[in-house]
Amino acid sequence: MTAHVRDGLRQEVLDANLAIPQVGLATLTWGNVSGVDREAGVFVIKPSGVPYEDLVLDHLVTVRLSDGAVVDGDLRPSTDTETHRCLYRAFPSIGGVTHTHSTHAVAFAQARRDIPVLGTTHADTFNGPIPVTRDLTPDQCAKNYEYNTGRVIVDMLDGDDQKAVEVPGALVAHHGPFTWGTTARKSLQHAIICEAVADIAVHTMALSPTAPPPPHLLNRHYTRKHGPDAYYGNPEMATST
Hints:
Structural class: alpha+beta
CATH topology: L-fuculose-1-phosphate Aldolase
Shape: globular
Number of helices: 9
Order of helices and strands: HEEEEHEHHHHHEEHH
Strand content: 5-15%
Number of strands: 7
CATH superfamily: Class II aldolase/adducin N-terminal domain
CATH architecture: 3-Layer(aba) Sandwich
CATH class: Alpha Beta
Helix content: 25-40%
């Protein structure tokens, strides 16, 4: 029996997971997407280690937000499940979480460098650098490692939900990117953008290591898409950017 979640959530989570390899964000099974139903107190996530080409709706696993217990599904949930749960519990605005090992974002994570804001492509989505966390401690790796992976993100953002809204992603040091959004689909879009701006940043920094754009330009690009004065797109039509 499938645990009750809001209509369309399981299909949205499946579609977002299937899109990960289609958009080039994953090798083998290196990625996962989840979506939360806060009213039901659960989230739906990809199972651990299942190849994307084999993934179907019945494989998805439903997990309780309060304690991480599996409430529906015959397979083990993603090994990153506790990281997703930590982020959901810390930030009420989050409706979906995506984790990948996309090449350029991982390169910044492994170098322990923020992805800097070098132009308007970045500023359209992220109101500031995509930050990299501190290293986990030996104790954090030894016990509750995946939940602590979420904790270093939460601590870096001071548990501030508004910071999570304005910069919907982070790099876990030596690991890779986690992105989030109001829906599972939106979190995947942010993962796509995170990888794209990381790629662009690598090329920009190779050409001109000191090329900071004017802050007023970056602010204009962010606020025309976000906040009370946003005017990008058409409310009656779904937009992807």
